[in-house]
Amino acid sequence: MVTYAIVEDDREIRDNIESMIDTNENYRCVLSVERIEFLLKRLDANNLPQIILMDINLPGMNGIDGTRLIKEKYPEIEVIMLTSYDDSNRVFESLKAGASGYLLKTISFKELHAALELLRAGGAPMTPQIARKTLEFFRPRKKEMRKSVLTEKEKEVVQGLVDGLSYKLIADRMFISVGTIYTHIRNIYRKLHVNSKAEVIAKSLRGEI
Q1: What percent of the chain has pLDDT above 90?
Q2: Which residue, among 45, 60, 57, 76, has the nearest Cα to 13 in the 3D structure?
Q3: Which residue, 30, 32, 24, is CA-closest to 117?
Q4: How far apart are CA 184 and CA 141, in angstroms?
Q5: DSSP per residue, the chain
Q6: pTM for this structure?
Q7: Contact, 61 vs 37, CB < 8 A?
Q8: What is the pLDDT of residues 126-183, one digit of tens each?
Q9: How far, in Å, CA of 209 to CA of 207, rounded?
């Protein structure tokens, strides 16, 4: 038998959650309260619930602070946040406080039971949109592509400089005159706010062009 407690200040929601879970004969609600403070007073160290379903926005102590306190005192209890809030800050503050999962109250009857079974199997149940937020947070962010102020031809000239070519060799590579190369060079210096080939090359090697 899996025992659980509910902390939810809305009596109707609290009763609905209990009714949903108790359709599974393997689960039994041992505490149903509207405040963290009431839960803490009634927790029995010799007969603790295995799971606590925790709202966040509660009168008195909020669910995140409550979770942190419970995990410090009773680390064996699994806490699942069951809330209306899906913003990233509350999600990560809850997980940092020790929550084992984060579900939204829009969860269906079937999804809630699946989440509890996943928790029992050692998983971390999350509503899909919460799981996505978590993945996006930890996924390496792509570097923003810097939009170059140079034209494609000017970039070719810069590459020639990086390759160590003379103006004449760059001109030969691009099939244009040396005079045109000088025009490109002047434009490159102006756009990049530099005064020498060395500065152009340095900017290119740093990925600033």
Answers
A1: 64
A2: 57
A3: 24
A4: 35
A5: -EEEEEE-S-HHHHHHHHHHHTTSTTEEEEEEES-HHHHHHH--TTS--SEEEE-SS-SSS-HHHHHHHHHHH-TTSEEEEEES---HHHHHHHHHHT-SEEEETT--HHHHHHHHHHHHTT---B-HHHHHHHHHHHSPPPPPPPPPSS-HHHHHHHHHHHTT--HHHHHHHHTS-HHHHHHHHHHHHHHHT--SHHHHHHHHHTT--
A6: 0.64
A7: yes
A8: 988 888 777 776 665 555 556 789 999 999 999 999 988 999 999 999 999 999 999 9
A9: 6
Query: Mind listing the domains of the chain with CATH numbers?
Result: 2-138 (3.40.50.2300), 152-205 (1.10.10.10)
Question: Which tokens belong to 32?
Answer: 């149903």
User: Could you tell me whether strands 78-83 and 101-104 are parallel, antiparallel, or unpaired per DSSP bridges?
Assistant: parallel
Give 146 or 101, the one with higher predicted confidence. 101
Cα dist from 208 to 78, 142, 147, 177, 197, whole Å: 50, 16, 9, 27, 15
Q: How many CB atoms lie within 10 A of CB 96?
A: 11
